[in-house]
Structures are given as structure tokens and as C-alpha cells.
Amino acid sequence: MGIKVIALIIVFLLAGSILASAEVDDKSPTEERNTVDSFSTNGASLVDISSGSNAVDSYASSEDGLFTRGCGNNKIWILDPDCSKRGLDLSLPFGQWSVLELGPDTSGYAMLFHRLPSGDLQTEYMGYVHSGHRYRLSLCADSTGTHEMWYRVGWQESNHVTLDVWQGQRSY
């Protein structure tokens, strides 16, 4: 009888620890991340660039028309190195830094996807994002070829952006 009681206690303790670790805080900080060393963001943090209570309005009337609020779409852009222009594709020399900008339409936990020039797919947990906010993430052009990136919040996927990384000098 003693072994059965001990086994039952162990089962309850294991079940309790599993439930405790599965508990999720909806207010978790955006800096909570599971980094992958070979990921091209090189351990950069997702930064919320929204401005206070006007966060929804801060990008709803975007000057470039690429962002449409309330259409049920998560958006992603790639910014040039000085962050003066954003678009859906960019060409950079090897070793140059750029920025990804995310505009989630829904709140939830975000996962960033990165298809490497080799065809391999890398994923990175980005933390909790809020609808109506904008987030930025540093990106290093650390391997030559065409990179494709997008993210997902829940089951809702964003558009895709591409980064063409080249080695050496280009005449154009």
C-alpha cells in the first residue's frame, strides 16, 4: 500500500508542475524570447515603438498606404538601414544592418519565420504583441542570397518581405 501512495503523490506532483508551467500570463513582456543563435536577428529584442494611448492611430493613417487597419491582416515591412523608407523588399550588402517592422492586427503570441537562401526555415518566438502597436526588430544581412520573412499571431499570418543580400561591390 505504501508504494501505491508514493506513486500517487508523484503523479499529483508531476501533474501540478505541468499545469503550473503551462500557465500563461497575457501581460508578458515583449522581450520574452526563445532565441536561436543562427537566426539573422542575432538575438535582437522586439521593441514596441507605439506611442501611448494613440497607438492604434499612430499607424492607421500610414503615409505609404501599405498598412490598412481593421482588415484582419498582420503586416510586416523591411526598413532601409537608416529607417527612412519601408517596403516589402530590400537589397543590402553582406554585413549591413536593417530593421523589420511588425504591425499586428490581433493581440497574441508572435512567431517569426525566416526562410534562408538554402531553403531552410528558421522560427523564433517573439513574445506577446498587442493589436494596434508597432514593433521593430534589428536584422543583420549575415548570409548572401534571398531571405524571406513573415510572422504569425495565432493562426493569422502576415504578408511576406524579402531581403536580397549580396557580397562585394555592385555597380548599380
Describe this entry's structure for a reader.
This protein has helices at 2-22, 55-60, and strands at residues 47-48, 75-79, 86-87, 89-93, 97-103, 108-115, 121-129, 135-140, 145-153, 156-157, 161-166. It has 172 residues and is an alpha+beta fold. It has one domain (26-166): Sandwich (Immunoglobulin-like). Strands 4, 6, 7, 9, 10 and 11 form a six-stranded mixed sheet that branches. A five-stranded antiparallel sheet has the order 1-8-5-2-3, with no helix packed on it. Strand 2 and strand 3 (86-87) form a beta hairpin. It is elongated and about 75 Å long. The model is unreliable at 17-40 and 52-70 (pLDDT under 50).
- Helix content estimate: 10-25%
Distance between the termini: 82 Å
CATH class: Mainly Beta
Q: Which series of helices and strands comes N to C?
A: HEHEEEEEEEEEE
Strand content: 35-45%
Reported by name, the CATH topology is: Immunoglobulin-like
CATH architecture: Sandwich
Shape: elongated
Q: For the report, how would you describe the main beta sheet? A: 6 strands, mixed
Helix/strand structural class: alpha+beta
The averaged pLDDT comes out at: 75
CATH superfamily name? Answer: Macroglobulin (MG2) domain
Unreliable segments of 5+ consecutive residues: 17-40, 52-70
Count of the domains: 1
Oligomer description:
single chain
Total strand segments: 11
